[in-house]
């Protein structure tokens, strides 16, 4: 399976070392630093620790010793739910999120999943466009799912994508 989307292949040379590694508790300080710069309402250290303790799949993408991004997902029987996918702001719109999604699909298929699920903020047009171009389809809307301010909430678009057997 080719994990590198075309726009990312142009950036990669034999000199650039890229690794996809299992996330551990030792990685959480660096992960949290990216999480806090990428989101207005980031996951907390406790959220990440709980996800790892629960046995959720969590991987980080490293290029030239720099943490580029990561994802956390949960498998329930034959479905995988993407809980968090983040690319550091300095690396966004370069194909890294697509690479993470490709790996998640590969991992999910090798672990017997037939479908991927996710929620995304209704206002997050770049992510919605990425997911749609990747093959996800909107299947619902969760009203007032995300915090959007001190007293406001934002809906989440629920998306799913079948995986090829």
Description:
This protein has 165 residues and is α+β, with helices and mostly antiparallel strands. It has one domain (6-162): Gcn5-related N-acetyltransferase (GNAT) (Aminopeptidase, 3-Layer(aba) Sandwich), CATH 3.40.630. Helices cover 30% and strands 36% of the residues. It contains 5 helices and 7 strands. The protein has helices spanning 6-9, 28-38, 45-53, 96-110, 125-134; strands at 18-22, 57-63, 66-76, 79-87, 115-121, 137-147, 153-162. A 7-stranded mixed β-sheet has the order 1-2-3-4-5-7-6, with helices on both faces. β3 and β4 form a beta hairpin. It is globular, with a radius of gyration of 16 Å. It starts with 5 loop residues before the first helix and ends with a strand.
Quick rundown:
It contains five helices and seven strands, in the order H-E-H-H-E-E-E-H-E-H-E-E. It is of the alpha+beta class and 165 residues long. The longest helix has 15 residues.
Write the layout of secondary structure elements.
Blueprint: H1 6-9, E1 18-22, H2 28-38, H3 45-53, E2 57-63, E3 66-76, E4 79-87, H4 96-110, E5 115-121, H5 125-134, E6 137-147, E7 153-162
Parallel strand pairs: 4-5
Antiparallel strand pairs: 1-2, 2-3, 3-4, 5-7, 6-7
Given the structure, what is the number of helices? 5
* Number of structural units classed as domains: 1
Cα distance spanning the termini: 14 Å
Number of strands: 7
The portion of residues assigned to helices is 25-40%
CATH class: Alpha Beta
Tell me which oligomeric state these chains represent: single chain
What is the arithmetic mean of pLDDT?
A: 90
What's the CATH topology name? Aminopeptidase
């Amino acid at each position: 399976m080719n994990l590198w989307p075309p726009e990312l292949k142009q950036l990669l040379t034999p000199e650039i070392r890229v690794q996809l590694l299992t996330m551990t508790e030792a990685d959480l300080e660096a992960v949290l630093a990216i999480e806090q710069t990428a989101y207005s309402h980031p996951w907390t250290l406790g959220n990440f620790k709980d996800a790892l303790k629960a046995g959720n799949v969590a991987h980080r993408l490293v290029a030239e010793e720099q943490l580029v991004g990561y994802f956390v997902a949960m498998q329930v029987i034959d479905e995988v739910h993407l809980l968090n996918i983040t690319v550091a702001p300095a690396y966004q719109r370069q194909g890294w999120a697509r690479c993470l999604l490709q790996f998640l699909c590969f991992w999910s298929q090798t672990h017997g999943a037939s479908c991927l699920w996710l929620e995304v903020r209704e206002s997050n047009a770049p992510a919605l466009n990425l997911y749609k171009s990747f093959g996800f389809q909107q299947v619902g809307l969760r009203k007032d799912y995300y915090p959007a301010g001190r007293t406001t909430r934002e809906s989440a678009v629920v998306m799913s994508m079948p995986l090829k057997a």
